[in-house]
Amino acid sequence: MDVLQRAGWVKRALFLADRISLVNQACNAFKAHLPEASPVNLVTEKDTEDRVYGCTYPTLMGLIDETDGGAARFGVGHFDLVIIDEAHRSVY
Questions:
Q1: In what residue span(s) does the Helicase/UvrB N-terminal domain sit (predicted)?
Q2: Distance CA 53, CA 39 (A)
Q3: In what order do the strands lie in the sheet with 81-84?
Q4: Which domain holds residue 51?
Q5: Cα-based angle 39, 40, 41 (whole degrees, multiple of 5)
C-alpha cells in the first residue's frame, strides 16, 4: 500500500475486517510501520478524514448511507484500494 500511494496509484485505502479487534490491530500496525499514513479507525473516529481507513463491515454499511449536504460520504470510487481481512468469516 505504501508503494502504491507513493507512486500515486492509490489516494485512499480502506482496510475492512469483521471484528473491531482486527481493525484496532491493523490501525496500530499501520501507525507502527507507516506512521505517515496516520490511519483513521472509522469504528471510533467517524468524522475524521485521511488517506488510510480501518473499519468493520457493519460500521461501513452505516457510513455508506450517511450524506453530508446531500452527497454521500463514501461514494463510488472513494477508495482506490480495499484490503479485506477474514472475509471468509463474514456474512457481508
A1: 4-92
A2: 5
A3: 40-41, 52-56, 13-17, 81-84
A4: 2-89
A5: 115
